[in-house]
Design brief:
The complex is a heterotrimer of chains A (788), B (286) and C (172).
Chain A lengths: L13 H5 L15 E7 L5 E7 L1 H4 L4 E6 H4 L28 E2 L5 E7 L2 H10 L1 E6 L25 E8 L3 H7 L2 E13 L7 E7 L4 E6 L4 H12 L6 E4 L15 H13 L3 E4 L2 H7 L2 E13 L5 E11 L12 H9 L8 E9 L14 H19 L3 H8 L8 E2 L5 E2 L4 H12 L1 H12 L4 E13 L17 E7 L5 E5 L8 H13 L6 E4 L17 H28 L6 E4 L2 E4 L5 E4 H10 L13 E6 L7 E13 L6 E11 L6 H20 L30 E5 L17 H17 L9 E2 L3 H16 L2
Chain B lengths: L6 E4 L3 H10 L4 E4 L5 H6 L7 E4 L9 E3 L3 E5 L4 H6 L1 H6 L1 H6 L6 H4 L4 H7 L5 H8 L3 E6 L2 E6 H4 E3 L2 E2 L6 E8 L5 E8 L9 E10 L2 E10 L6 E2 L1 H7 L6 H14 L10 H21 L2
Parallel strand pairs in B: 1-3, 2-3
Antiparallel strand pairs in B: 4-5, 5-10, 6-7, 6-10, 8-9, 11-12, 12-13, 13-14
Helix pairs in contact in B: 10-11, 11-12
Chain C lengths: L2 E7 L2 E7 L5 H8 L18 E4 L2 E4 L12 E3 L1 H7 L3 H9 L9 H14 L5 H7 L11 H31 L1
Parallel strand pairs in C: 1-5
Antiparallel strand pairs in C: 1-2, 3-4, 3-5
Helix pairs in contact in C: 3-6
The chains are: A alpha+beta (788), B alpha+beta (286), C alpha+beta (172).
GO molecular function (chain B): FAD binding; oxidoreductase activity
Pfam families (chain B): CO_deh_flav_C, FAD_binding_5
Keywords (chain B): FAD, Flavoprotein, Oxidoreductase
């Protein structure tokens, strides 16, 4: 029964935020709480000779200053490798730098004071003497034998490499009518959640219990991490993730500072608060992307895509992130190449290199934007080479909607996708013929508009083969406890978490429909390891698909319990009863038999009146792990319309379109806003966002005045349509949607910019597409045209 | 990003301000809107021991049209510069520049005097007062003086203000009815510091340009008057040819820094584009 | 040395001794417990900390608490209690114009100030008024929609009130 599933239900928890009543970790103040500030290496690489904390220790309000020697022994070092990434290496990481500093911003000392301001005053007084070494900050040459190493504890700068290929790939290229190719550079950017990372670690020596209030999307993972790395019984560790001011994958990694806050609380026996300020965020939050990709595509004379070959060099930090590693991004890049297309042959090479910068790791749409941009840019070139238009070449090559199941050239298994339907729908929305007419007319007036499209797949609902198989203690299953209260209201405690995407709302909708009540009668608890069952929580787009299915199945079990109990109470066969309108009703006629409230009253207060042996427990717990396909892929296509000012290189984003298929839509209001937010997180790095480093490994734009995030004026309105292809792996049929917007927005925009610049013969293959890069591309094209 | 500790004092008169300033020689900063000093202290780029709040000094307030000039008090906030009818009428370049200065909430607090005293070479108002041929009114222990804008901006964040002196007002000469104005900038995002910006005014007689005053910002260590471009325009009608001459002569006027991330030739190129657009805006202005 | 500050916060007179280096944001959050005002960048770039000072939105991170002397401060908590932004809040809720909620109070301040100046702003004008408000979650469109809807409703309410009073006058 789906009364509420599929409805644009508003988010109940949004009311608190609108009233300024959000409860973020950065708002939390506990008795005796100390404030932590970290002294950081100003250099990207070097050897610590001395740290003089004497003057700092005399500053007002300072309680304690830790260096590596006093803090690190309290915590087991962590290593960011996974077993299924064969041959991967990454040296162990400690809270504070011991001898070597590995990036500008690497914490070397920790100050605990009565206020953040006093801790900052003291940090200014710590004298750190570091023998400067030349940092590794470059590209491909760092992998040559004998190159200086970013991390002396690694045996080279190669963290990981892998190769995927089909047997016939060389023949495909040899026999192709056309081979198109290009070299791409994708800049480094970062999450810039509006609430920075925040943690309040509260160790109570009297009870031996550690409570960590942590602005994270994965509380259970951190319960496990804190227990293991600090040698505490898991049952004594509680992680609470209340309201979180944005996460996007950035808040599920292990960071030096959070581990430091826990260690300090364990040592001092009092609460320790660490909230990164914005300058610290830029040099300690994970960065993302940072790829050089060379790509080729083999195409038949009729425009059929035969094969792709790509070589991706991605540069991470001086260690791989923990526990998901910094190699998963590149791994997904090479596996997602060409994924929407029938393309039979493929070769993909990945090299993951260490360097002395902030570590990179998973951020919204891991690997997707890179694979999509490379594939879709090459498809545009193939279209040009074969005289097809962008819609025509995609119609020819996208996997047919009736050709499933399908296995991609890189080995991904697709259950059922809807590329062709999405393409057709996008064509209706964009009306490319009209856009071409307008484009031609405007060009005569010196106005250069262009449009571009990009098909994509998105990985959602991952099973245990994603990380678990590599030995990581990262759960791919989720759990829910659903219970009926004496009033007949419903409560669901579930392991998927809420950072504003609407998890609690959709869980209430799903549970409500199983139990025949309005969603307003379902309250949902998330984000606390002490009150909800263990599970994967939120990563890789799994809240709706896996969390929703967990809630659905738990809800159905509770339904069966209620009906059994009701059968005993009204003396009817439970099979003739169902739940509707807050009551048990006759399944056939819908006539009310007994209200939930009455069942709750009897089960709770008068179980003595029940027939002997009738189970009156109205609480069920259920865990669900994905079954069937290793992932539930989603698909879609995006379109972008831009206007390029060819005199200044500025780009105006006029319009963006998305057609998306995330399977069963639980809440269209929330799905659309996930897509819009995701698109803008894709457009940001396509045009604005870039962590800029100088040759010394210094981040030169690490503040919100200098790092350009997408803002309201520059972003377009986004029109969205849906195709719904539910997965058959679950009863609910929902897949993820959080990363779809980000996956292809940049690719569509790059194709649009290049379409606008076509009259000049200019072509961009680097992001962000800044005004200066656009002017450089125009100059290069002019030079080429006018060369003798 | 918490500010280092300091002593906060309010001055009710210029005399009191100098006195408080001189007590901690070289270690005091005047506070008006605070929108440059406060973030700079939050970044711990400066740590004065004393902030002297001069926003309560009456003489720094108010916008008044006097005999030959419009006097704009130093404490006039950007939002008021944007909305004040006297500014719109007599100093339109300031009104045109104001919407480009950061964002609405910043404009509600930031003051014109604070902005000019900081002399950020990427900021809009310094170039606007240069193009307006305004005078800066300064008061100090030695008395009050007026400094032409052309002599006020000396170097990066360096002005004609001596230590302890206070920028009290800007005097903009009342324009003749025939004067035309234009202001524009090229910025990555709305409210960002411009990649390059320009303020210009010109006097036209029978279609001929008899006077032109053009200033660029975000092109060096100070706002820069484009003398050669001005000369290229004076005596000619505003035409495609004269605009092209002015654009070509910009190389003599501007010597932008050569940054690997933003080469000098690009900034010059953008300045030429912008000059063309600004002059075109003048032409199309009624 | 602490300085005594007299100000009015959400309609209530407040007299507190503050350290001069405390920003208005830290004062509101830490001393008064008004944590609906958020800190995102502490340098006036993100707009998360906007509050109304004497009726106009300002960055509470760039204003020192001592500079609020004699002023009137309104935060999201106060505007909620008076109902001044109830329609904006309702439209934000309807349109799902917030996700994590961290930017929301700043957005409400900018929207309220815009609509006070311009009852029926265009989408471009709304986007311009939000030029200093960073939101990482929504992509802005829903926020623009919510503000536009509020503007339309307020304009319609004003119009019908005017029409009603015109009718009354005509009747008299």
């Amino acid at each position: 029964m789906t009364l509420h599933i599929g409805q644009p239900q508003r988010r109940e928890n949004a009311r608190r935020h609108l009233a300024g009543r959000g409860r973020f970790v950065s708002d939390l103040a506990l008795p005796r709480m100390l404030h932590a500030v970290f002294v950081r290496s100003p250099m990207a690489k070097g050897r610590i000779l001395d740290i003089d904390t004497e003057a700092a220790s005399l500053c007002p309000g300072v309680l304690r200053i830790f260096t590596a020697a006093d803090l690190n022994p309290r915590c087991q070092p962590w290593v960011g490798t996974l077993d299924h990434f064969a041959g991967m290496q990454s040296p162990p990481m400690n809270i504070l730098a011991e001898d070597e500093v590995l990036w500008a911003g690497h914490p070397v000392a920790m100050i605990l004071a009565h206020s953040r301001a006093e801790a900052e005053d003291a940090a200014d007084q710590v004298l750190v003497d570091i023998e400067d070494a030349e940092p590794v900050t470059g590209g491909a040459p760092v992998l040559l034998p004998g190159a200086p190493r970013a991390n002396e504890a690694a045996d080279s700068n190669l963290c990981y490499e892998t190769l995927l290929e089909t047997p016939d790939v060389d023949r495909a290229f040899a026999e192709a009518a056309h081979v198109v190719e290009a070299a791409f550079t994708f800049g480094r950017h970062t999450a810039v959640t509006l609430e920075p990372r925040a943690v309040v670690a509260d160790y109570d020596p009297a009870s031996g219990a550690l409570t960590v209030h942590h602005g994270t999307q994965t509380p259970y993972q951190f319960q496990d991490v804190y227990a293991r790395h600090f040698g505490l019984p898991e049952g004594k560790v509680r992680v609470i993730a209340p309201d979180v001011g944005g996460s996007f994958g950035m808040k599920l990694h292990v960071y030096n500072e959070e581990m430091g806050a826990v260690a300090a609380s364990l040592i001092l026996g009092r609460p320790v608060r660490y909230v990164a300020d914005r300058l610290e965020s830029f040099v300690s939050d994970i960065h993302a992307r940072d790829h050089d990709v060379h790509g080729r595509m083999a195409v038949a004379a009729d425009g059929t895509i035969l094969a792709m070959e790509v070589d991706d060099l991605t540069r991470i930090g001086a260690v791989s992130a923990y526990p998901r590693t910094s190699a998963a991004e590149g791994n997904q890049v090479i596996r997602l190449m060409g994924a929407p297309y029938r393309m039979p042959d493929y070769r993909g090479k990945l090299s993951v290199a260490f360097q002395n910068k902030v570590q990179t790791s998973q951020y919204r749409a891991v690997g997707h934007p890179i694979a999509c941009a490379v594939t879709e840019a090459l498809v545009e070139r193939a279209a040009e080479a074969t005289g097809c238009d962008p819609f025509e070449i995609r119609a020819r090559n996208l996997i047919a909607d009736d050709a499933y199941p399908h296995v991609s050239a890189t080995g991904y298994q697709f259950e059922k996708l809807s590329h062709q339907a999405c393409l057709a729908r996008l064509r209706e929305m964009m009306d490319p013929d009209a856009l071409r007419v307008e484009q031609a007319a405007l060009r005569t007036r010196g106005i250069y508009r262009g449009f571009g499209i990009a098909s994509f797949v998105e990985i959602t609902n991952p099973g245990a083969t994603f990380y678990g198989i590599g030995g990581a203690r990262i759960s791919a299953q989720d759990g829910a406890v659903v219970r009926m209260l004496p009033s007949g209201d419903i409560h669901c405690a579930i392991s998927v978490t809420e950072q504003g995407q609407g998890t609690e709302t959709i869980i209430a909708q799903v549970v409500a429909d199983q139990l025949g009540v309005a969603p307003e009668r379902v309250s949902v608890t998330t984000g606390d390891t002490a009150t909800t069952p263990s599970g994967g929580a939120n990563w890789a787009c799994r809240g709706a698909g896996i969390g929703g299915e967990t809630a659905l199945r738990a809800g159905r079990q509770l339904r069966d319990r209620i009906l059994t109990l009701a059968g005993a109470l009204v003396q009817a066969d439970p099979a003739t009863l169902r739940l509707a309108g807050g009551a048990v009703v006759d399944a056939a006629s819908g006539a009310p038999r007994i209200a939930l409230e009455e069942i709750g009253r009897i089960a709770t207060y008068r179980p003595d009146t029940l027939p002997h042996g009738v189970d009156h427990s109205l609480t069920v717990a259920h865990h669900f792990a994905p079954v069937g396909y290793p992932f539930d892929f989603t698909n879609g296509i995006q379109g972008s319309l831009v206007e390029v000012d060819t005199e200044t290189g500025l780009v105006k984003l006029l319009k963006h379109w998305v057609v998306e298929d995330c399977g069963r839509i639980i809440n269209p209001l929330l799905v659309d806003e996930q897509i819009r937010g995701g698109v803008v997180q894709g457009l940001g790095p396509a045009f604005f966002e870039e962590c800029q480093y100088d040759v010394d490994g210094q981040l030169t734009n690490g503040s919100l005045a200098d790092y350009l995030v997408p803002m309201a004026v520059e972003m377009p309105d986004i029109e969205i349509a849906h195709i719904e292809t539910p997965t058959q792996d679950t009863i609910l049929g929902a897949k993820g949607v959080g990363e779809a917007g980000t996956a292809a927005a940049g690719a569509a925009a790059m194709n649009a910019v290049n379409d606008a610049l076509r009259p000049f013969g200019a072509c961009l293959t680097q992001t962000p597409m800044t005004p200066l890069r656009i002017l450089d591309a125009l100059d290069a094209a002019l030079k080429e045209r006018t060369a003798p | 990003m918490k500010l280092p500790a300091f002593e906060y004092l309010r001055a009710r008169s210029p005399e009191e301000a100098w006195q408080l300033h001189s007590e901690v020689e070289g270690d005091a900063v005047y506070l008006s809107g605070g929108h440059s000093v406060v973030p700079s202290m939050a970044l711990r780029l400066q740590a004065p021991s004393r902030l002297i709040d001069i926003s309560g000094i009456a003489d720094l307030h108010g916008v008044v049209a006097q005999d030959n000039a419009l006097r704009i008090g130093a404490m006039t906030r950007h939002a008021e510069v944007m909305d004040n009818p006297l500014v719109a009428r007599h100093a339109p370049l300031l009104a045109l520049a104001a919407p480009h200065v950061a964002h609405p909430a910043i404009r509600n607090r930031g003051t014109l005097g604070g902005n000019l005293a900081l002399a950020d070479p990427a900021s809009e108002f310094p170039a606007a007062v240069l193009a307006l041929r305004a005078e800066i009114e300064i008061i100090g222990p030695e008395g009050s003086r007026h400094v032409p804008a052309d002599e006020f901006f000396l170097d990066l964040y360096e002005t004609a203000l001596a230590p302890g002196e206070i920028l009290t007002a800007v005097h903009v000469p009342l324009p003749p009815a025939s004067r035309v104005f234009a202001f524009d900038e090229i910025a990555r995002r709305r409210g960002d510091y411009a990649m390059v910006g320009a303020a210009a005014q010109a006097d036209l007689e029978k279609g001929m340009i008899v006077d032109a005053s053009i200033a660029f910002f975000s092109v060096g260590f100070t706002p820069v008057r484009a003398k050669a471009a001005q000369a290229a325009l004076i005596g000619a009608p505003l035409s495609r040819e004269s605009v092209a001459r002015a654009q070509a002569s910009l190389a003599e006027d501007l010597d932008p820094p050569d940054d690997p991330g933003f080469p000098a030739h690009r900034r010059l190129q953008l300045a030429r584009v912008l000059l063309g657009r600004v002059l075109n805006q003048m032409e199309t202005r009624p | 040395m602490k300085v005594l500050v007299n100000t009015k916060v959400n309609g209530t007179p407040v007299q507190e001794a503050v350290t001069p280096r405390s920003s208005l944001a830290d004062f509101l959050r830490d001393d008064l417990g008004l944590t609906g005002t958020h800190l995102g960048c502490e340098m006036g770039a993100c707009g998360a900390c906007l509050v109304l000072l004497d009726g106009a939105p300002v960055h509470a991170c760039l204003v020192l608490a001592v500079q609020a002397e004699g002023g009137t401060v309104e935060t999201v908590e106060g505007l909620t209690e008076t109902g001044a932004v109830a329609d904006l809040q309702e439209n934000f809720h309807d349109r799902n114009a917030l996700q994590c909620g961290y930017c929301t109070s700043g957005m409400l301040m900018s929207a309220q100030a815009l609509l006070a100046r311009n009852a029926a702003p265009s989408r471009d004008e709304i986007r311009d008024a939000l030029s200093g408000n960073y939101c990482r979650c929504t992509g802005y469109e829903a926020i623009v929609d919510a503000i536009a809807a509020t503007g339309r409703a307020r304009a319609a309410a004003t119009e019908s009130a005017q029409a009603a009073s015109a009718n009354t006058e005509a009747a008299e």
